[in-house]
Amino acid sequence: MSGFDPKTAFSLNGKGALVTGGGKGIGRGVALGMARSGAQVHVLDRDLAAAEETVAMILAEGFRGKAHRMDVADEASVDSTMAEIAAESGIDILVNNAGLAIRKPTIELSVNDWDAVLKVNLTGVFLCARAAARHMIPRGTGAIVNLASIMGLSGGGLYPNISYQSTKGAVVNLTRALAVEWASHGIRVNAVAPTWVRTDFIKALTDNPDLLAKINSMTPLGRIAEIDEIVGGIVYLASPAASMVTGHTLAIDGGFLAQ
Ligand SMILES: NC(=O)c1ccc[n+]([C@@H]2O[C@H](COP(=O)([O-])OP(=O)(O)OC[C@H]3O[C@@H](n4cnc5c(N)ncnc54)[C@H](O)[C@@H]3O)[C@@H](O)[C@H]2O)c1
User: Fold this and answer.
1) pLDDT digits (tens, 9 = 90+) for 99-116
2) Spans of all domains in the chain
3) What one-character-per-residue DSSP string does 147-187 give?
4) Which residues are catalytic?
5) Measured from the CA of 74, which atom of ligand 1 is nearest?
6) Of 111, 178, 198, 250, which one has the greatest count of Cβ atoms within 10 A?
7) What pLDDT score does 115 carry?
8) At the top level of CATH, which class does the domain 8-251 belong to?
9) Is the pLDDT of residue 208 over 90?
10) Distance from CA of residue 193 to its chain's centroid?
11) Taking the model in full, what pTM does it have?
12) Which residue has the least CA distance to atom 2 on ligand 1?
């Protein structure tokens, strides 16, 4: 007989959840989704006003949330914010969502551009995961979900984006390595790899009708994703329903990688 109960399996009741880059886009969707699933959500963004807007939406629905200014690439900012949150609500869930892309032909990409993307997309994930794990390990439990991308699992091809693709590929393997390192501490580490998702992050791409048509034609389901289509996978990976899942990267891609 199965004891599976969807109400508890997908519940984040009583959990302290942190979402980096939660001020807009996918991160805002995740913050709202986790709050509705019962978590006390800490919205972390380098843009405090944006984080506060997300929290206002959470509070307006009668759920719990708090905004914090934090730059994922700033070690001191990450460590002090995490310590403050750990004391306040505990850290049960971390979603490493903040991300950056500088799309240029590789031969025109400066080292400054390269470094800027690495700092946020890779060093930021390392710094946040490390700080969170320092608080999760003594409690013997935790779930981390990283935002990778289909661009971390394929060569792309529609436009050059080398620093983004390199970092997202690295996030896939960082996810595996941290999952293995921290499994004995009860910490699960997973990632999602979305296709193009309708946010400001890709507005310059989706505003180009020819490029959007190409993206759609390269995607078996024939369209880009909406934010809420990504949120469910992230909530799932953070929830008790995924208690046996670790080191996995879940593609949410309309079949892009299945080809
Ligand atoms: N939108 C897509 O098509 C798509 C596809 C695959 C993966 N992703 C990934 O999903 C994540 C979220 O993307 P999005 O589309 O919601 O982006 P977005 O640009 O809409 O939002 C990103 C948020 O992150 C914040 N942020 C950026 N750098 C930060 C830093 N250093 N510290 C703290 N906050 C910072 C921004 O202020 C913003 O609120 C990124 O990691 C991105 O790479 C996006």
Assistant:
1) 999 999 999 999 999 999
2) 8-251
3) E--GGGSS---SS--HHHHHHHHHHHHHHHHHHHHHGGGTE
4) 164
5) 31
6) 178
7) 98
8) alpha beta
9) yes
10) 9
11) 0.98
12) 197
